[in-house]
Amino acid sequence: MDWVPWSEPGRAGVEHHVLWAPDESEGEDSVGLLLRFPPGAHGDFHEHLGHELMLVLDGVLDHSDGISYVKGDLVVEGPGTEHQMSSRTGCTVLAIRTRPAAARTPQKPVRPVGVTAAP
């Protein structure tokens, strides 16, 4: 399986493998990805324009709202939700988006990347 660095502003260390990509000629916006977060890697802070489903396949995925998800956890984000995902310990995630996401600037405090949430 080929892993490609996800080079985009606000992202650090995340690698991805495309399962399928949008097909503009058919009006298809969805994308299916496998994401690999080495320890300390993070995505950008963004807003979802459609639904996103994330299934943690291995490791721990940290959400900017303070929740951490472990192997087997399913996360569903609806349109209009905003977050930044990271991993202190490393993880692999299946991610499916029905529409693209748009980079945003947080308007309220969020969990800093690499910080453990308070109990």
Automatic annotation (TrEMBL):
InterPro entries found in the cross-reference section: ChrR-like_cupin_dom, RmlC-like_jellyroll, RmlC_Cupin_sf
Protein name: Allophanate hydrolase
Start and end residues of each stretch annotated as Disordered: 99-119
Superkingdom, natural source: Bacteria
Span of the signal peptide: none
Native organism: Streptomyces zingiberis
Alphabetized UniProt keyword annotations: Hydrolase
Annotated Pfam families: Cupin_7
GO molecular function, one term: hydrolase activity
Chain ranges of the ChrR-like cupin domain: 2-94
